[in-house]
Amino acid sequence: MSQADSAAEGPALWIGSLLRRYPELVAELAPAAHGGLRERRGGGPVGGTTVPVRLHVSDVLRDLTDGVVELEEAVRERLGLRPLRPAPVPVRLRRIAGLLERIAADPVLAAHVEDETRRMAARCVRVLGDPEQMVRLPGRCPGCGSVSLRAFPERAQVRCVNPACVRVLQDRDVDEEVTP
Questions:
Q1: Containing H/E element for 160?
Q2: What pairs with residue 160 in β-bridges?
Q3: φ, ψ for residue 10 (rounded to 5)?
Q4: I need a surface site. Which of 15, 100, 152, 180 has the fewest CB within 10 A?
Q5: How many helices (H) and strands (E) in the chain?
Q6: Each residue of 94-111: pLDDT tens digit?
Q7: The whole model's pTM is what?
Q8: How far apart are CA 41 and CA 39, in angstroms?
Q9: How many Å separate Cα 62 from the centre of its chain?
């Protein structure tokens, strides 16, 4: 794996996570809205009740939106690209993902994109109450030879999940020793 490929892999993982979780976050803003409140003719809820908006989710949505807008602007500016028209968060994330090869060529920018997307994805996970995602990696553990390597993105950690081994790999171990 080339250095550019590995530099693009981290941000791609986080952008994918954000793309999957963003619609869940929007749905979580008022989770009972689709859950069976009866409405009377004219559109008002029965008995005057309304579905409460979950403010902590609203805050995360606002911060995520602001973060994605600022990240896209920073990436385009650093790469010398002209600004694009405003777009919804998922569109902006896909536009950033389309630039990952160019981003990977700039180590400072690649680190920034990875840090920001990891931070935003972790915030989504926390507000949604999801357990930490685990990603299966290709290759074998350099310690036991098992195909049990998994990445734990929130911890920024790669480990062997073979119960007989449970080795935690360092970045250099992953780059040098893991063979496909």
A1: strand 157-160
A2: 149
A3: -60, -55
A4: 180
A5: 6, 4
A6: 999 999 999 999 999 999
A7: 0.63
A8: 7
A9: 16
